[in-house]
Amino acid sequence: MSFLWPQALWLLAALPLLPALYLWLLRRRGKPVVRLSSLAVARQASGSTWRRHVPPTLLLLALAVALLAVARPTARVTLPWARSTILLAIDISLSMRIQDVKPTRMAAAQEAARSFLAELPPHIDVGIVTFAGSAQVAQQATMDRPSLLASIDAIQMQMGTAVGSAIVVCLSELFPEHGLDVGEMTYGARRSTARSLDEKRKTPPADFVPVAPGSYESAAIILLSDGRRTTGVDTLQAAKLAADRGVRIDVIGLGTVDGHASAGEGMAIYLQLDEPTLREVARMTGGEYHHAGTAEDLRGVYRNLGSRMQMRTRETELTALLAMLTAVLTAAAAGLSVAWFGRVA
Q1: pTM for this entry
Q2: Which CATH code, of 3.40.50.410, 3.40.1650.10, 3.20.20.70, 1.10.10.10, is assigned to 82-184+207-309?
């Protein structure tokens, strides 16, 4: 346990003065003379004298807890908690229409995404990034579940697969001050240096110190993809950017490795599930890789991700808890005093 205001602990030094003051008040009252009619009454009277010390003792404990609360103690406590933002990066390339996952990879992914939103705690912000030949934000992070469902239903498949660009767009949403630019990372020196008069001059990117992979607990990325990169930012380069920022990427590989065989189309290698690269993305960022070969497997992966994200051990301030304990002890002291002696004393 640690304290945000440790200087307030000096107030506890005054606590021993209160019992001394209480004993002094008891002795000051003197010893009253009581006439008793029988020995039984005397035994009953002597047996109940301890009661008068209980309310002051509880009040002293309440004051001690209150002074401890003033110091604002903190401790590592495991509490129900979820990441504040989850970004779903969904592959919408044409290979998602392959039927090795029934009815299609795309339909299975959409149904699993709906199930995930239904089971996720409602106070978590969720955003959707879709990618094919390019990546774009389909829905900014929000707690508005109907808007998210509408974005999922409105998905239209396109050509190309820019996995790395999708990761960079997600990072741009989480860290807008870092100035991550997909165009510059994709084209580099080939990008035109001309600038439109209407284009706003970009502010210099904020400096940041790389952190441990997976250590950024305020957000996570869930990447769903069935193929390999055909354009855009290099996938592992983008994964390195996420790892340096501590953002965890959980990857779901859609389809089967030989699912392209039933497609009957050219360039079959680009329809294959690129498991080695996807596994490396998860490893680099401290995430997990899941292979979802069927629609039911995919729904199971989503359910597991949702439940795992609900418990975290965090440094938590205990002031409110101690304040509540103070109130309970004070109420108990007053209640017992009224019940036993007919007054608050």
Answers
A1: 0.63
A2: 3.40.50.410
